[in-house]
Amino acid sequence: MKVKKRHFLKKKEIKKIKDKLDEYSEIISEDSNVEIAYTTEFPLILVNKEPFAILYNEKIIPTLKAIIKTNIKPKKKVIVDMGAIKYISNGADVMCPGIVKADSKIKKGDITVVIDEKHGKPLAIGFALIDGDEMTKRERGRAVKNIHYVGDKVWNLDL
């Protein structure tokens, strides 16, 4: 992934982004330098020269580095067993059998953070394909569409 061009954002544009980030708006502090970077794949929001959000299908998704660095506790999360980690960290969608626990607040289409059972660390972030209550009840099928995961192009992007 290469950055084609980038520029700093105005305060008005930053406010719009923070509003769209909703529960994750804390990843952008008032004194941060905020830029938009247009890459070969999708635009990124850079905070102090680090990728902190992805613009994906007109939605703004926080990156895992942003969640980890700002210590935000995601409200909508899915906890997966240790057997699922290998697949998720290679870009696979989260499957129902690998889910140990899912927040009941999760609705289809919500931004969902995938967390490992043992260490409690974020592994991936994506969109819920089904409601949270259904995720643990189903024995087969996909539950979360994996958009960004540890070790992907955004994670390894060096600016």
TrEMBL record:
Gene3D superfamilies: Pre-PUA domain, domain 1, PUA domain. InterPro entries: CHP03684 (IPR022430), DUF1947 (IPR015266), MCT-1/Tma20 (IPR016437), PUA (IPR002478), PUA-like_sf (IPR015947), PUA_sf (IPR036974), Uncharacterised_CHP00451 (IPR004521). One of its GO terms (molecular function) is RNA binding. This is RNA-binding protein, containing PUA domain protein. It comes from Methanothermus fervidus (strain ATCC 43054 / DSM 2088 / JCM 10308 / V24 S). Residues 76-151 form the PUA domain. GO terms for biological process: formation of translation preinitiation complex.
